[in-house]
Write a structure and sequence with these properties.
Blueprint (H helix, E strand, L loop, with lengths): L2 H32 L14 H15 L7 H38 L6 H28 L4 H18 L1 H16 L7 E4 L2 E8 L3 E6 L4 E5 L8 E3 L20 H9 L1
Antiparallel strand pairs: 1-2, 1-5, 2-3, 3-4
Length: 261
């Protein structure tokens, strides 16, 4: 590389860093002026580091070919910029999924249906896991790893993992059964195979029940497929049986007045 090309590389790196600082300051000023995070402690301050790093890496990737560097050197530099861009893009997408989850949960809390309160976090976790897996495969392909053999190995490992994680798969199907059949919802008073209490959370693996002794019991969702669920919260009415004791000298008039009242 010639001296002016080295100077151009340093200038492009500097431009990317300056662009990152400017974008981060702009995003912070725009969001902090719109939302009062200091007054409302429930709101989380957004972090824009992954977005700005993505913009910096893309600026390097797009500006480096302008310097007319030889093919091998340009390939090394652009691959490095692409690798940084891919890693930051994974975190940008992950953060976007988190924001979508927060928005959907805020809307779900306003509805009477409690199934969406359980379904949204479950879909959120599965989606983020899929994003990380796809991102890692793309990064591996970019750094020269044979993705085909990697995927084949992952397929065999997945089969072995599926056999080893038989109980986990049953728990996942159990959670799907609970969400589809709706034998109970969060907040219901239930009795499941002798475990009696209030349902606090329905997760992917287990359902958490807060007993009347204030203890927390985790019931595996796989048992819910065959378990007998007694949901006291779905009763149409409650039978109350009382005993009224009267002395023998009680006047009949008072008894009749009591019955009429």
């Amino acid at each position: 590389m010639k001296n002016w090309q080295w100077a151009g590389v340093i200038l492009i790196l500097f431009i990317g860093v300056i662009a990152q600082w400017v974008l981060q300051a702009t995003f912070k000023k725009a969001f902090l002026s719109r939302y009062k995070y200091d007054e409302d402690k429930s709101l989380k301050k957004p972090k824009f580091a992954s977005v700005t790093i993505l913009c910096m890496a893309l600026s390097w990737y797009l500006l480096l070919p302008v310097l007319s560097i030889d093919v091998e050197t340009l390939k090394i530099l652009t691959n490095a910029a692409a690798l940084i861009a891919m890693v930051s893009a994974i975190f940008v997408i992950s953060r976007g999924i988190d924001m979508i989850k927060d928005i959907l949960l805020a809307k779900a809390k306003k509805t009477d249906n409690k199934v969406d309160d359980v379904l949204i976090p479950m879909v959120h976790k599965i989606t983020k896991l899929a994003v990380y897996i796809v991102g890692l495969v793309l990064i591996a392909s970019n750094i020269g790893i044979n993705v085909a053999s990697l995927l084949a190995g992952l397929g065999l490992a997945g089969m072995a993992f599926a056999l080893a994680a038989k109980d986990t798969v049953e728990n996942i199907f159990g959670s799907v059964t609970v969400l589809s059949d709706k034998p109970f919802e969060v907040g219901d008073w239930v009795n499941i195979n002798g475990v009696e209490g209030t349902v606090e959370q329905i997760g992917i693996r287990s359902t958490r029940i807060r007993t009347f002794y204030c203890s927390l019991v985790n019931v595996p969702n796989s048992t819910l497929i065959k378990a007998t669920v007694d949901n006291y919260g779905r009763r149409n009415y409650r039978r109350i049986k009382t005993y009224l004791s009267l002395t023998y000298d009680t006047p009949p008039e008072k008894i009749e007045a009591f019955c009429e009242g």
